[in-house]
Amino acid sequence: MRDLYGVAATRWVDEGRAAVLPPARGVGAGRALGTAVIDWAADSGFGSVVTDWRVTNLLSSRTWPRLGFTETFLRLHRTIAY
Question: What is the pTM of this model?
């Protein structure tokens, strides 16, 4: 059975906020953080982890896919005030 986003209908974790401070970048801190979330979710009986980020965040755009995340939906944005 699939849910609205095309992924298996299971309990899931929304990884809402994560950040790696500049001094810790490039040494695997983001990978360790992502792996810790995935491991915790699996150990806790969740079926998937969901995250989203701005495509302009080039570091996240490389890190999450390397951890096995795949695109499941597209979020649209429209500015209405200038």
Answer: 0.72
